[in-house]
Amino acid sequence: MSDLLPPDAAVVAQDVARALAEDFGNGDATADLLPAAATASATVITRENAVLCGTAWFDACFRARDASVTIEWQAHDGDRVAANATLCTLRGNARALVGAERSALNFLQTLSGTATVAAQYADAVRGTRTRILDTRKTLPGLRYAQKYAVRCGGATNHRIGLFDAILIKENHIAAAGSLAAAVAAARKAHPNLLLEVEVENFDELDQALAAKVDRIMLDEFSADDMRRAVAHVAGRVALEVSGSVTLERVRSIAETGVDFISVGSLTKHVRAVDLSMRVRMESHAG
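-> structure tokens emitted (286 positions)
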């Protein structure tokens, strides 16, 4: 995907530092068995069809252990790769390659898994007006990475966190006393943020329309009610669907005419892509 913005370098560095500290502790007791100056090469393949994501995290893991390691990629983030395809080759210090392998593959297989699922959902609604959104249901500590993976798969990010958009739900409305009061308070406190309200019925939908919110989330609406809501709103505000969204029914939801479908499983139900890395010793110096 040539138009895909690269991940934030500071985020990558923080994620990798945390992962390596978790894995290495006070040293690599197994890699210490190898000669300190030995070199090795390695090849990474995918054992299944996937959308590749996470190359920056992968590279950073190895470069943290060997700044001179060479990594040659045969594919790039956002590319669709076929089973048994070679993804990259590496050459560097043998201890660095075997030591950083697990952390590097953990990033690559997890983020590729997220990107692959995002692509499946994006493909399923292709040709409709609907865009697939992610949610905040991410792996703790990997939100920015998974949000990037969603973009690699061709889907769209919802808000990153609690700071960059407002989503008013049932509990917020109850605390404020009414939907209108919650919206008014939100507008006063954060006038420049996108303001979305979740509604559970048509009465709340009309209240949200009257409050002139930026987006309305239809929570657990039936397909017939989604179509009714689209006709009723008539383009006055963007509509998002949330709740009980599966790959099997996402197309039928999109065909109701809604603008967005948010899917928590993009980042919550992560199944890592099956990858393999084979290391070959090149020298045993030292």
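The two ends are 43 Å apart (CA to CA).
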